Amino acid sequence: MSDRFVVLSGCSGGGKSTLLNELRRRGHATFDEPGRRIVQEETVKGGTALPWVDLEAFARRAIEVALNDREEARDQTGWVFFDRGLVDAVTALNYFSTEPSTKRLGLTHRYHPTVFFTPPWPEIYHPDAERKLGWEEAVAEYERLAKAYPKLGYRIVILPKVSVEQRADAVLTELVTSQRWTADTVR
Hints:
52% of the residues lie in helices and 12% in strands. It is α/β, with parallel strands linked by helices and 187 residues long. The chain is globular, with a radius of gyration of 16 Å.
């Protein structure tokens, strides 16, 4: 487990990528959402591992990308932020696949115990070329993830609907506070 690896998850269109960009601007290592990168790659090459064509292939590819991101992150120092992570991809595969659960991946490859969730926020939600999910689908995905993370032992902090700067401050404050709490309980 790496307590330096911090996941931003939650609702599609809830501001995760904007928050990630703010954390990057502040000098933190970041990894963009695997799903968006896969859609971009598949679109360029005419592939079919797209969530609206072959969701199972898309989820399998997202697992692969998330594992590669974790490996690459090992070389980074300090906090490393991920716009979605392995648990998101495993949750999607488990929901849409008839295969046995891949929960072991989520248990083996751990992130920081606190996961930051962007809640459903209809005022900022908008589909685009890479996110064709409708509002109801986005909320359903959020609900699945809100159940999956705690089942794997993660604590969810739901971010407030405030400016991106305030959200970044909230994330960093929570991480420092949880780090202090952990150090104090070990003594």
